[in-house]
Amino acid sequence: MEPKDKSKELNRKNLSWLKEQNVDMRVGILHNYLSICQIMINELFEEEVTEKAGPRYSHQKPEDGRWSRWGYNPGSVKIGDQKLKIEVPRLFDNLDETNTPLQRYEEMKELAGPSDQLLKGVLLGLSMRDYGGVIDSLGESFGLSKSSVSRSFIERTEEKLKEFENRSIAHQDFVAIFIDGKYLSKEQIIICLGVTMTGDKIPLCFIQAATENAGPIKDMLERLKERGLDYSNGLLFVIDGSKGIRKAVEESFGNKAFIQRCQWHKQENILKYLPEKHHETIKKQYWHAVNQESYNDARAELNQLMADLKTLNISAARSLNEGLEEILTLHKLGLNVEFGRSFSTTNCIENLNSQLKKYIGRVKNWTLSNERYRWVAAALLEIERKMRKVANFGKLEKLQTTLIKEVKRRTLDKTNFN
Fold this sequence. Notes:
There is one protein chain. By secondary structure, the protein is an alpha/beta fold. The chain has two domains: 6-144, no CATH class; 172-417, no CATH class. It has helices at 15-20, 23-30, 33-53, 103-108, 117-123, 146-166, 214-226, 243-253, 263-271, 279-290, 295-312, 314-321, 329-332, 336-343, 347-360, 369-384, 396-417; strands at 67-79, 82-93, 98-100, 110-111, 141-142, 174-184, 187-196, 201-209, 235-239, 257-261. Strands 1, 2, 3, 4 and 5 form a five-stranded mixed beta sheet that branches. Strands 8-7-6-9-10 form a five-stranded mixed beta sheet, with helices on both faces. Helix 9 (263-271) runs antiparallel to helix 12, helix 10 (279-290) runs antiparallel to helix 11 and helix 15 (347-360) packs across helix 16. The longest helix is centred in the last third of the chain and has 22 residues, at 396-417. It starts with 14 loop residues before the first helix and ends with a helix.
């Protein structure tokens, strides 16, 4: 005997039936939004039929029994990108001796509202051919050919790209910005991730670029200012050490920019000059130094590390010395204890990049640049919804207050110098 098709059991079920089911069944159905839609539609149909023909099996009929239940007809309702098969109750008008369509069914034939299930399914790496595997298992869907899925996905990602690039950020109060590059299918995408005063992480913009050259990055930063980025109080920029990124930031924001070089990247740059047998010792010495509370203590220990490195490898010592002051920016601001975890490395944006790879890393080739931009924008907007606040976000006011004081000091020093 063939197993019973569970999806067909929902065709005529309503909320009363749902309430009678055990907890496992109800939780299972809640995971399928099409199943909930089907039950709600059945409920609305039953209400209309009851208004005209009375409760099922009742001898008391409204309007002197003008309307009678008359079985079901197959039908469908479009919900977002999908069509849901349903069974539509029939009403017979005994006065006119004709079948009468349900008014609510006519209204529901083209339910409005976008569905993100298709978008998410494709972004998670499913091919167009495999998309049917993520369709709600308890609902009966059809009309999703490869071409229609592809067409719908293009339309949705075009909307996402437009939304991402045009949204104003003038209402946001940013305190820090991370900038980093990520290779996707042999092309580099450079991304800006902002951190607001409430600790929220917001992907701000991205560009496709051959290298981390200052020119394209500066263009990207200038567009951020055009979209309303307020940097009057100063901004902390966390970067990986790229000279191009550093130059672009300084040219775009002047004395309002405070650059924190990633301490983890600095460590890796040092270790690449050394044999593996020295790695653990140097790492312990390095992190003991940068975890010091005060700038003077951290600098003293790094000076000692630099002296030790000179005996092992002069190039490693030079690597430590290059940009040394910028890995201690938080120390100089007196903020390493509170914000070292959040802003001393590029971990925040590295996490974003790993999520981006999760969504679109399986794409091996984009024919057109527009495809790449559409996919990246759609993925970033999806990732944004799930990002956690930065650590110690409740104390970000201290970071902003310190930046404001330093901007004033820099401005005064420049005025006195001139």
